[in-house]
């Protein structure tokens, strides 16, 4: 299956309730601090919403719970990869997306035959303190040359206005976080995203 070119990331299932009806078809649930009961509830509800909307749900980090709850996709950062059992993820039939920031991380990611590779931050991001400075569009082009047919996700400081440049540089998918969640009108922003990515 071909993944949608627009890939928003949200930290609460309530965002999915708002955005899936607008036509979002690929979404990541990234919850950083929560107890197991809350996580299970969030992922279960997110999966039901995505199933109803015909959308792909990617669960960030919590691969064991993703397997247990019958999810189809999991996303892992490099630190998550240190702990994760990739063969168990694959044996359960889940698809796998991996974060990369430098050539050694990309080589490591590609050794797992990921279903997509994310490169970031393409632009400066306010989301989290990172040891990597902005990668720039040139790095997107280099990465696309290296990953070949593996879908490439551009993430970090992405906006509606910057999306066309990322696609032109070689990204297959553009991911957004704060450009939506911090917008005065998140629904209008998502509509603008859908317009620019389709």
UniProtKB/TrEMBL annotation:
<dbReference type="Pfam" id="PF02581">
    <property type="entry name" value="TMP-TENI"/>
</dbReference>
<keyword id="KW-0784">Thiamine biosynthesis</keyword>
<keyword id="KW-0479">Metal-binding</keyword>
<protein>
    <recommendedName>
        <fullName>Thiamine-phosphate synthase</fullName>
        <ecNumber>2.5.1.3</ecNumber>
    </recommendedName>
</protein>
<dbReference type="GO" id="GO:0009229">
    <property type="term" value="P:thiamine diphosphate biosynthetic process"/>
</dbReference>
<dbReference type="InterPro" id="IPR036206">
    <property type="entry name" value="ThiamineP_synth_sf"/>
</dbReference>
<dbReference type="GO" id="GO:0046872">
    <property type="term" value="F:metal ion binding"/>
</dbReference>
<keyword id="KW-0460">Magnesium</keyword>
<dbReference type="GO" id="GO:0005737">
    <property type="term" value="C:cytoplasm"/>
</dbReference>
<dbReference type="InterPro" id="IPR034291">
    <property type="entry name" value="TMP_synthase"/>
</dbReference>
<dbReference type="GO" id="GO:0004789">
    <property type="term" value="F:thiamine-phosphate diphosphorylase activity"/>
</dbReference>
<dbReference type="InterPro" id="IPR013785">
    <property type="entry name" value="Aldolase_TIM"/>
</dbReference>
<comment type="pathway">
    <text>Cofactor biosynthesis; thiamine diphosphate biosynthesis; thiamine phosphate from 4-amino-2-methyl-5-diphosphomethylpyrimidine and 4-methyl-5-(2-phosphoethyl)-thiazole: step 1/1.</text>
</comment>
<feature type="domain" description="Thiamine phosphate synthase/TenI">
    <location>
        <begin position="12"/>
        <end position="180"/>
    </location>
</feature>
<dbReference type="InterPro" id="IPR022998">
    <property type="entry name" value="ThiamineP_synth_TenI"/>
</dbReference>
<dbReference type="GO" id="GO:0009228">
    <property type="term" value="P:thiamine biosynthetic process"/>
</dbReference>
<comment type="similarity">
    <text>Belongs to the thiamine-phosphate synthase family.</text>
</comment>
<keyword id="KW-0808">Transferase</keyword>
């Amino acid at each position: 299956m071909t993944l949608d070119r627009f890939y928003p990331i949200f930290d609460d299932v309530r965002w999915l309730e708002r955005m899936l009806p607008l036509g979002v078809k690929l979404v990541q649930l990234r919850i950083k601090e929560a107890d197991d009961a809350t996580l299970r509830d969030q992922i279960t509800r997110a999966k039901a919403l995505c199933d109803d909307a015909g959308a792909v749900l990617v669960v960030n980090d919590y691969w064991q719970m993703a397997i247990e709850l019958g999810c189809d996709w999991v996303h892992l950062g490099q630190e998550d990869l240190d702990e994760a059992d990739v063969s168990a993820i694959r044996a359960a039939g889940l698809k796998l997306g991996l974060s990369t920031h430098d050539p050694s991380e990309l080589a490591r990611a590609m050794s797992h035959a990921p279903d997509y590779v994310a490169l970031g931050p393409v632009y400066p991001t306010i989301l989290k303190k990172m040891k990597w400075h902005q990668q720039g569009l040139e790095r997107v082009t280099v990465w696309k040359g290296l990953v070949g047919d593996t879908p490439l996700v551009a993430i970090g400081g992405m906006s509606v206005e910057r999306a066309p440049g990322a696609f032109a540089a070689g990204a297959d998918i553009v991911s957004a976080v704060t450009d939506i969640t911090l917008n005065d009108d998140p629904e209008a922003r998502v509509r603008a995203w859908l317009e620019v990515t389709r």
